[in-house]
């Protein structure tokens, strides 16, 4: 049983490799209840788990209550001075005093069990439910919080949960930072004493940070050592607050929202948070990543078993100047090199001749496509490819028929400017009429054009995010807009089970485990420079699987960085995820097209292994040193090897693989030679791309088959 009652007020929640022990501590003087974590680490049996419930609590002084960081949801109230996970005001009183009401254990089927701890305020009719779900097939633990009120209440902070990381001599954090065109930059460093906050206040996940963090004791490596990881499954504004107590101990509280918003609840209303997910492993950062990847495939992604097709996107070839003849010419070339899905990007709708107009007018451009788009997409299908289209449903141009008809549909505040960003505003998806409008035209578009794929973009962070008609409750827009996007995607997929959706937000501005529940892949960055992409893909892979990562081969010099790089290197970097082509094929030489066809065929040979296999990050820093990424799936082992440096004589010279069966033999496909798994892992191979002298940007694909 995943949930094991240890006594009336303690429970051990077990996963295949870990145990999470929680209990409700009741103050004997005040009766106040404080659910807290007593253990999270390697798996324990029931009797051992029972013993950790009696471990001594932290020393409490007149000036601090350090044990509050062990609480599952420290509230604003009582003898607490730390950052609260829950902050509620009843009129002029901003404080909670909770009493324990009951616990409930539910069997949810498929090896999943859920524990609910129900608490209530001592005076006001306000209920808090802490939920924990564990599954038999993953070490990821899911937590969320529900609040219900029988009176007027104003919530200023409602996190999904607070997690305690056990005592250690030192703490190190891992996370990613970035900006547009340089998302997912991995950073690791000592966790300072005090509070460290990672956040987005933009209404989207953001390019600046991503809602996850990993904590270790400073000695963990890629394949060895303990890691505690937290991730928030949410696509709007978010916040992770890490507290490192002066006397030791670390907690991480994660949830939606940001400082300054207030969510008013009327009697009878409830508010449910998105899940915050926790994972413990003793197998290093690599094992942590593989566990997150497998969790995403089993419990998040809607179509994880499918192989994502090789796509072509026409944006860089045409920008806004799309025509049927040009698109069909590109499609013919794309089909000839093995592309399976053709996606037409921006410029096809309204009067969209540039980015100043027409967002919201989702009908074919009357001058460019006077007869509509059907004949063009039929022509693409005749070439043997599936069809896709770029849309930006949340975007709104002031210069549009929609804005003239419904200016109130834009996010805006009363008596305040409507500032444009990228010469556009944001539609309010918290509104039911906006959601119905969006479902209507999206459903019509997919039906009329028989589309297989949508690239859903969102290029505009929130500003002046208001809904004047809702008055005091308009801050709920920060939550309900994101949930409205989820709803529209879910309804669209329900009507079109074969439709696949890619999440894009000016590149990697909406990459998270929330949006991946409704989309099949994400676009990690607008920067397609292969060297920069290695850094981006390295950070992406810490949490998200390769089968959800869209990666393109584009032209050289690169449109963003102007860096020149060989076609082969560009392909090998893009082959580490879901391969796509984004260059102007009309200008590729016959030799480049021939090489592209061969590389696409090689990718299809290892596609299932890359997209569904166990991923291992090998050797040095990607994009800066010799590096490699390895995938293992069934009997196939695929290794993508990179060397950006021409004159690199220093080690490593041999590439040691990992994750193999040491007693088994593996056939190297290119020459038929046989190698023991033990040899490949202990000694390694010498890739041609790692020869000490040669041109910059050498790469290769090495494939083994277990025999």
Automatic annotation (TrEMBL):
Give residue ranges for domain Glycosyl hydrolase family 36 N-terminal.
35-266
Instruction: Supply the alphabetized keyword list.
Output: Glycosidase, Hydrolase
Molecular function GO terms recorded: alpha-galactosidase activity
Q: Name one GO biological process term.
A: carbohydrate catabolic process
Q: Which InterPro entries match?
A: Aldolase_TIM, Alpga-gal_N_sf, Alpha-glycosidase_related, GH, Glyco_hydro_27/36_CS, Glyco_hydro_36, Glyco_hydro_36_C, Glyco_hydro_36_N
Which reaction is the catalytic activity of this chain?
Hydrolysis of terminal, non-reducing alpha-D-galactose residues in alpha-D-galactosides, including galactose oligosaccharides, galactomannans and galactolipids
EC nos: 3.2.1.22
Is the keyword Hydrolase in the record?
yes
- Residues bound to substrate: 180, 345-346, 422, 455-459, 504, 526
Top enzyme category: hydrolase
On the tree of life, the source organism's domain of life is: Bacteria
Mention any Pfam family matching this sequence. Answer: Melibiase
Catalytic machinery residues: 457, 526
Q: Which residues form the Glycosyl hydrolase family 36 C-terminal domain?
A: 627-704
Family as reported in the entry's similarity comment: Belongs to the glycosyl hydrolase.
Q: Which PANTHER family does the protein's record reference?
A: ALPHA-GALACTOSIDASE C-RELATED (PTHR43053:SF3), GLYCOSIDASE FAMILY 31 (PTHR43053)
What is the name attached to this protein's record? Answer: Alpha-galactosidase
Q: Which organism is it from?
A: Nonomuraea fuscirosea
């Amino acid at each position: 049983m995943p949930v094991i009652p240890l006594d009336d007020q303690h429970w051990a929640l077990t996963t295949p490799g870990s145990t999470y022990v929680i209990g409700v501590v009741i103050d004997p003087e005040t009766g106040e209840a404080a659910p807290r974590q007593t253990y999270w680490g390697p798996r324990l049996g029931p009797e051992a788990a029972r013993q950790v419930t009696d471990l001594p609590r932290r020393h409490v002084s007149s000036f601090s209550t350090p044990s509050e960081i062990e609480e599952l949801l420290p509230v604003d109230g009582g003898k607490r001075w730390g950052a609260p996970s829950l902050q509620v005001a009843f009129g002029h009183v901003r404080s909670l005093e909770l009493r324990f009401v009951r616990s409930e254990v539910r069997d949810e089927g498929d090896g999943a069990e859920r524990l609910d701890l129900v608490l209530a305020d001592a005076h006001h009719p306000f209920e808090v439910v802490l939920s924990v779900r564990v599954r038999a097939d993953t070490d990821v633990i899911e937590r969320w919080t529900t609040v219900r009120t029988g009176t007027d209440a104003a919530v200023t902070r409602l996190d999904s949960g607070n997690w305690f990381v056990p005592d250690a001599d030192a703490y190190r954090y891992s996370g990613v930072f970035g900006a547009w065109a340089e998302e997912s930059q991995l950073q690791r460093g000592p966790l300072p004493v005090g509070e460290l906050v990672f956040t987005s206040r933009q209404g989207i996940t953001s390019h600046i940070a991503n809602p996850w963090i990993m904590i270790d004791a400073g000695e963990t490596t890629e394949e060895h050592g303990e890691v505690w990881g937290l991730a928030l499954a949410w696509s709007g504004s978010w916040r992770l607050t890490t507290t490192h107590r002066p006397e030791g101990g670390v907690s991480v509280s994660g949830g939606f929202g940001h400082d300054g918003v207030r969510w008013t609840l009327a009697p009878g209303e409830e508010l449910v948070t998105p899940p915050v997910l926790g994972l413990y492993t003793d197998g290093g950062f690599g094992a942590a990543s593989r566990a997150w990847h497998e969790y995403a495939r089993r419990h998040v992604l809607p179509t994880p078993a499918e192989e994502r097709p090789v796509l072509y996107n026409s944006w860089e070839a045409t920008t806004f100047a799309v025509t049927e003849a040009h698109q069909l010419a590109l499609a013919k070339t794309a089909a000839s090199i093995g592309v399976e899905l053709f996606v037409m990007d921006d410029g096809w709708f309204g009067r969209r001749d540039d980015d100043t107009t027409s967002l919201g007018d989702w009908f074919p451009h009357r001058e460019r496509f006077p007869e509509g788009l059907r004949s063009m997409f039929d022509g693409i299908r005749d070439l043997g490819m599936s069809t896709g289209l770029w849309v930006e449903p949340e975007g709104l141009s002031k210069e549009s028929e929609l804005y003239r008809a419904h200016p109130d549909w834009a996010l805006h505040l009363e008596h305040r400017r409507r500032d444009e960003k990228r010469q556009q505003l944001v539609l309010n998806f918290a509104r039911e009429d906006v959601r119905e409008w969006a479902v209507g035209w999206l459903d019509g578009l997919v039906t009329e054009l028989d589309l297989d794929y949508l690239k859903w973009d969102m290029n505009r962070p929130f500003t002046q995010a208001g809904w004047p008609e809702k008055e005091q409750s308009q801050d709920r827009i920060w939550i309900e807009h994101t949930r409205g996007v989820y709803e529209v995607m879910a309804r669209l997929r329900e009507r079109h089970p074969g439709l696949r959706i890619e999440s894009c937000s000016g590149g990697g501005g909406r990459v998270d485990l929330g949006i991946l529940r409704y989309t099949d892949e994400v676009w990690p960055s607008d920067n397609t420079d292969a060297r920069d992409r290695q850094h981006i893909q390295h950070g992406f892979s810490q949490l998200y699987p390769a089968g959800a990562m869209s990666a393109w081969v584009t032209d050289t010099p690169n449109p963003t960085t102007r860096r020149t790089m060989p076609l082969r290197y560009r392909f090998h970097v893009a082959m580490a995820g879901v391969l796509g082509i984004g260059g102007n094929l009309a200008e590729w030489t016959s030799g480049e097209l021939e090489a592209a066809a061969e590389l696409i065929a090689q990718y299809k040979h290892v596609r299932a292994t890359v997209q569904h296999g166990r991923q291992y990050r090998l050797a040095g820093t990607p994009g800066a040193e010799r590096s490699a990424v390895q995938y293992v799936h069934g009997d196939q082992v695929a290794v993508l090897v990179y060397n950006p440096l021409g004159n690199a004589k220093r080690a490593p010279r041999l590439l040691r693989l990992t994750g193999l069966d040491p007693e088994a033999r593996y056939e190297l496909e290119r020459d038929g030679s046989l190698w023991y798994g033990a040899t490949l892992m202990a000694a390694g191979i010498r890739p041609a791309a790692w020869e000490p002298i040669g041109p910059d940007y050498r790469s290769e694909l090495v494939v083994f088959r277990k025999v």
